[in-house]
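pinging the channel bc i need a second pair of eyes. not urgent but kinda urgent?? the chain im working w is below, pasted from the shared doc
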Amino acid sequence: MRKGEKMTDEQRKKLSKAMTGKPSWAKGKNLSEEHKRKIGRANKGRTSWNKGKTLSEEQKHKISVANRGRPSWNKGRITPASVRKKQSIAKLGSVPWNRGIKTHQIPWNKGRVTSTKHYGVPEPSDYHPGIVSKIKEVFGIIS
């Protein structure tokens, strides 16, 4: 078979059988930092093969049908305790996403400024005085 020629079904099967079970030629090879930089420079400015392409409704439907019943990529994964602790520390002192949002307004008070206290959002003064120090103690944060 010459370069550029199409393989016959027989040739494909023979090659597939010969290559089955063998790892890729690149498996286990590590690129040097210089090599990675060269590859990056060579690819700079290139646009992705699918940039600007849009899927038809039929294509979207086919993809949707094909993915039905397939669980999410992170379903069943357990976040390690060390990561959860770091996330918890990072969130300390942050303001909740719904803090100060006025909800459940009824027509007669439309436009009036009402306190968020009535909607179950605690004011900073409502927090237990020792809660922040307790959290810092539990997570070993030194301030």
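so The radius of gyration is 29 Å. and The helical segments are 9-19, 33-43, 57-67, 81-91, 131-139. — does that match what u expected or am i reading it wrong
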